[in-house]
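User: Second chain of the day. Same drill as before.
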Amino acid sequence: MGVYIKGMDKHPCLFCEFRTWEPVDTLYYCLITKRGLPKDEIVPDWCPLVEVKTPHGRLIDAGELLKWADANPLTEDGGIDINDFEEYFDNAPTIIEAEEE
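Assistant: Same format as last time:
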């Protein structure tokens, strides 16, 4: 599971909201990963934060949509039609609501 913090931007560690100073080692640490942070203005490969471009539309669970599509193939002779697919797509599980600009 993950957490989306609406309105938060991803920054290099030097400016990150999840950076803390550990007085024992006089180093900065990541509050999320409990790892020491680089001193330069970079974002390390192991950073768990993922950017979500904004503004964005409704973000759906594509995996659930694909499972449904596999179980309900589109056919011209008796299978579901495109309207069924569009209805399911419109009602697919939402992960993150659309963001207004």
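The beta strands are 19-22, 27-30, 59-60, 94-96.

User: Great, on to the next one.
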